[in-house]
Amino acid sequence: MKKLFLLLLFVAPAYCFAQTDSLKYKPKEEFCEAETEGFSYGYRLKISKTDQNFDKVPYIKNTNNKPREFNSMIGIMNYMAQDGWVLVTSYPEALNNGLTQRLHLIYKRPL
What we know:
- By secondary structure, this protein is α+β, with helices and mostly antiparallel strands.
- The protein has helices spanning 2-16, 22-25, 73-82; strands at residues 29-39, 42-48, 86-93, 101-110.
- It has a 4-stranded antiparallel beta sheet with strand order 2-1-4-3, with helices on one face.
- This is DUF4177 domain-containing protein.
């Protein structure tokens, strides 16, 4: 009986303080990569939720089915925030011609 009591004494705290699987309770998140291309008249935006080449991804279009143009990066940030996207990180892409500038933005949002 004494051995059983000692065994329970040492095993019970392990069950009381055992960690739960935290992945079950965390909200799942969705990530996307947005590519902005700067021109002399403003910026255009492409969004990809999969690992694909941005050459095949079309620009975001406006109601007239033309590529939507943003005046600044703030406009792009506000556009993405309207859909619940939060900026995680960004990095520039160097181009050879120097006339256009590309910036890749990584966003996330809860599902």
